[in-house]
Amino acid sequence: MAGYLAVAAKLVLNVHDLNNEGSVGQALDIRQIRMVDENGNPLEEMPAVSGRMMKHWHLEHMRRKALGSSNVKLCSVCESGQPDRQTQATDELQAIEECLVCDVHGFLSTKKMTNAPRRSSCASFSWLLPALGTRPESKQVIHSRVASGTEASSSTGETSQMIFYKTYASGVFAFVAGIDLNRIGSTIDNRKVNGDIKTRRRVAIQALLPIVLGAFGASQSHALPHAKCLGLLAALSTTEKPVPNLISPIYSTGFEESIALLETMGNGVDWWSYGDGLKNAKKTVQEVFQEILAKI
């Protein structure tokens, strides 16, 4: 039995452009956020990636896995890669039976009816934030796009050049996430989908792996970050016993405090780690996920 999965990960990301604020003139700036240290003292603005971006990419990795499987379904909107959390279903069970993404990431019915069905997400993500005590580096870089021939000028055929600026960041970052596995395939009133719930849960878990390895965010076609997972902790409840959110690895002792907490929970909660200095660490990130999937 699988109840709840909680994960915490720390990554080093070099030269990334994973989340943008928007453009001002010819400049595209990376998203910045304000934080405080462990004593509550304010820190200067630093680059970060929103939880919405992290959640979107978990959804996208789920969608890709579902497209390659005959055991799970996607509704037409989610299959197209443009899920908007809206459905025309008149019942929660109908909506989640028709779509894995609607099941795991939730939906809101747009039908004009009393008590229109809605479903909150089974997956939750924090922001990806810089580790406290570190200071991410960022730099604005000049890019140019050259257009020639008729693209540049239909009358003269001359070549033109467009200059624009983008900001890139590097640093050590961390995030926490959780998936309520018990809720997958089940409505709020405990009706079950007519399908393989185990496969649905496995796909939701497998979609976390590329995120832990750095596959998320914007600009991947031309600014794929040089990513490396420095540490990972995963906890899985094998009963209905809840697992708390893990302490974020943005804190210097986040992993160690989480492990100490998990060790007090006794039977019914399994946990695995990866990373230098962590207790009972596996050799690879993939081994951690293999252990989780073996319990599902």
From TrEMBL:
CRISPR (clustered regularly interspaced short palindromic repeat) is an adaptive immune system that provides protection against mobile genetic elements (viruses, transposable elements and conjugative plasmids). CRISPR clusters contain spacers, sequences complementary to antecedent mobile elements, and target invading nucleic acids. CRISPR clusters are transcribed and processed into CRISPR RNA (crRNA). This is CRISPR-associated autoregulator, DevR family. The keyword Nucleotide-binding does not apply. It comes from the Bacteria. Keywords: Antiviral defense. One of its GO terms (biological process) is defense response to virus.
